[in-house]
Design brief:
The protein has about 500 residues and is an alpha+beta fold. The chain is built from 13 helices and 22 strands. A hairpin with a 2-residue loop joins strand 7 and strand 8.
Length: about 500
């Protein structure tokens, strides 16, 4: 892929500026955006501290990578899509007597039409997630009949690739595809207990890597004129194979599903990760969008990102080059280079600050196990939230209206193997704060590591020295002890 100016491919720089402004106006936690038409990248930006070589957690975009690996396994004669999955996992199936599970095919798993719904493996805490999948005793139905999102089934498809090839599925894709299309050498996948790749959620790669993977699918499995993967498999993977609109409500995520790839409006398809990791291709105008961020819990984020792209870029794209706009293009480049991770918005001070600044609050028994805490906000705006919990004394540093980058002080979170907690391990974070009212201070912590998540802490102060604290976390398998209410008084 190559770089070009937007006017040369019919895109007005003003529309790109409007799109970036839309993302900022909606206070999204955006990390990177790439926009391309055909093979031409016309705009890209990284929100500091993210950068071009950052290996971003792709969450369920990983499933689309697994689908492509399954396609290569089929092409190599290692499997047939209509084979029952039980054929490849006979030992794991020994205790599984359910006829629907025994008949479930690889194709059905690709379509998210499995016999049993997804399992929460963070709850199960299994040492062998593959075996756990086949030991599932939940009620079943004939596979291939209905759509139900099943991450655990996607994980097993990744394990199938590794069983058939004898390699990590990312190493298999490296040989078959990555080196040819220019996926970075550093791309890899986190693992699960038992040594399996975390194929449904753990791919780590750059935003441009994802762009190249989307372009490869958009090309029908070819690159630079060379057909690498069976075009019929790619066509099936990226077009509607099953309906997924259970409630009859229109939306980007209810237009159908292919093989581990979502179907969108106007014959588009997209890779889709849970924090708003999107790889969207709109074929009618040959437009691609890669968006990486962490907007878990923000229910309208998908519509803002994808509808905004459709309305501002897709619908306004001309069929031929447009008049050069050097001034606006310069403004666009300056904007791209100035992006920074969102920080809390609100007032920078409050009349209450003098009464609570540097003071210690003693808390009543609470779900977080925090016994006491102190908030300090000096004149330079570099604040600290210090507290004592079961791990001891902790301090988190934040900026007023701007991020401070450090480590979230809680230790013992997972590292390269999901759900396996590592003593002493901490996650990088960005922390900022603002006064939402004269009596309410809000603290926003964004985890920006191999794992993403957000912790919102709202302090409500009273003139009589009492405080109420609400903590709400949005994270997959951590921050569990930072969720709930606490009340306290000034010491």
């Amino acid at each position: 892929m190559q770089y070009n100016i937007p006017e040369n491919v019919g895109i007005h720089p003003a529309q790109l500026l409007k799109y970036y402004q839309l993302l900022e106006d909606n206070h999204l936690s955006t990390h990177a955006v790439y926009i391309a038409r055909g093979n031409d990248i016309i705009s890209f930006a990284h929100w500091k501290p993210f950068h071009r070589n950052f290996l971003h957690r792709m969450y369920s975009v990983s499933k689309s990578f697994v689908s492509i690996a399954i396609g290569f396994c089929r092409q190599d004669g290692l499997l047939d899509l209509d084979d029952p999955i039980s054929r490849y996992f006979p030992k794991e199936m020994e205790n599984q007597q359910d006829a629907n599970m025994q008949a479930q095919t690889i194709r059905h798993m690709l379509m998210m039409s499995t016999a049993r719904g997804a399992q929460n493996w963070f709850t199960v805490r299994s040492d062998d997630r593959v075996q756990t999948y086949f030991d599932n005793t939940n009620p079943s139905r004939p596979s291939g009949t209905l759509f139900e999102y099943d991450s655990s089934g996607s994980f097993v498809l990744g394990a199938l690739v590794e069983r058939l090839t004898g390699r990590k599925f990312m190493d298999y894709l490296r040989e078959k595809l990555f080196d040819t299309i220019g996926v970075s050498k550093e791309a890899y996948c986190l693992e699960c207990p038992g040594g399996h790749s975390w194929g449904d959620s753990g791919v780590m790669c750059t935003s441009e890597d994802m762009l190249r993977m989307v372009r490869f699918v958009a090309n029908g499995g070819s690159w630079d004129g060379k057909q690498l993967l069976d075009p019929e498999y790619v066509r099936l993977a990226s077009t509607k194979q099953i309906d997924n609109n259970l409630h009859g409500v229109p939306g980007w995520d209810t237009q159908g599903y292919g093989y581990q790839i979502w179907i969108g409006y106007d014959d588009s398809f997209f890779f889709n990760g849970m924090g708003c990791q999107f790889g969207l291709y709109m074929p009618k105008k040959d437009l691609l969008l890669v968006y990486n961020g962490d907007n878990q819990g923000k229910t309208q984020a998908m519509n803002v990102i994808l509808n905004g792209f459709m309305d501002l870029i897709y619908k306004t794209a001309a069929d031929s080059p447009i008049e050069p706009c050097p001034a606006l293009r310069h403004q666009l480049r300056c904007r791209e280079n100035a992006m920074a991770l969102m920080a809390d918005r609100g007032d920078m001070t409050s009349p209450m600050l003098e009464k609570i600044n540097g003071k210690t609050f003693v808390l009543e028994k609470n779900p977080m196990g925090i016994r006491e805490c102190t908030i300090t906000i000096p004149d330079d705006g570099l604040g600290s939230f210090c507290y004592t919990n079961e791990q001891g004394e902790k301090c988190l540093y934040f900026g007023m209206g701007e991020n401070v980058f450090s480590y979230f002080p809680h230790t013992g979170y997972s590292a390269k193997v999901g759900s396996v907690f590592v003593p002493g391990h901490m996650y990088k974070c960005a922390a900022s704060a603002a006064w939402y009212s004269p009596y309410q201070l809000h603290l926003k912590i964004q985890i920006i590591d191999d794992y993403f998540g957000t912790l919102n802490i709202l302090f409500g102060f009273r003139e009589d020295g009492r405080v109420s604290i609400q903590m709400v976390k949005v994270a997959e398998d951590f921050l569990h002890t930072y969720n709930g209410w606490a009340d306290g008084t000034l010491r």
